[in-house]
Specification:
Structural class: alpha+beta
Order of helices and strands: HHEEEH
Largest sheet: 3 strands, antiparallel
Low-confidence stretches: 1-11
Helix content: 25-40%
Radius of gyration: 34 Å
Strand content: 15-25%
Length: 124
């Protein structure tokens, strides 16, 4: 059988008639409203403390890289929130290029903490 013969066979009327289904004749398909997949529960283990010499080594590497591109890095503890703040500063102008967490986030955290302490004081 050649390729041309296959095309002829497919084009010929086979005489088989299939019933046409109307929309209402089709079986209704219902999908589940909510599918929940149960994940195995894993207990989070606290990360082991990082050794101070390792931290110093990493910060020196970061500082060295940033100085090579005209930047410095500053680590400080925010007194209001007692959180570590990391700032990337332009070495020539002293301008803060990036700060994590940002000033807005620090103010928001302080505001939330004050609100929470006020609520605790009212309940006591």
């Amino acid at each position: 059988m050649r390729i041309g013969d296959v095309q002829k066979v497919q084009a010929e009327n086979t005489g088989v008639r299939l019933p046409r289904l109307q929309v209402e004749d089709r079986p209704a398909v219902t999908l589940p409203q909510k599918v929940e997949i149960e994940q195995p529960k894993k207990e989070a283990k606290p990360a082991p403390p990082i050794e101070v010499p390792k931290i110093e080594s990493v910060t020196k590497q970061i500082d060295s890289f940033l100085r090579s591109i005209g930047r410095t890095i500053n680590f400080r503890l925010d007194p209001a929130s007692n959180r570590m703040v990391v700032s990337v500063i332009d070495a020539t102008t002293g301008e803060v290029i990036r700060q994590v967490p940002g000033e807005e986030a620090l103010k928001l955290a302080e505001s939330i903490e004050q609100s929470m302490s006020a609520m605790v004081d009212e309940k006591a």
